[in-house]
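sanity check this fold:
=====
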Amino acid sequence: MTNLLIKRTDTLQERFGLKTASYLSAGASDLPYDISERLRAARARAVSMRKIAKTETASSMVNTGGSAALMWGAGEGLSWWARIGSVLPLIALVAGLLTINSIQNDNRAREVAEVDAALLTDELPPAAFSDPGFVQFLKATR
């Protein structure tokens, strides 16, 4: 199963490389000679570096062997306790987000109530309530 994933990943990388190369080559015919030569040299360097990186990755995989990190998902199936343990952090996250949302809504309501109480208990002349600037101020603070 792991070999199939590696082969599929390699195939996808090859496709991506071929598409990228075709896009780059499409516009290369209009470039001056010195720039096209520099691009050719850069491509040759990139291809040579890719081959080195691929062999290093393969040797490092051989060295790690059957480590616990590689074998984590290789079992036949997860037990019920393992499934509950993997879902529990998600449930805790959702509960925490809901609690934070509730607390923020309460804080906003408390702040609006304080402003309203301050406006209603403050001694203002009746003309202040009909002032367009005051009405605009009230709309902006809500």
The CA atoms of residues 123 and 131 lie 15 Å apart.
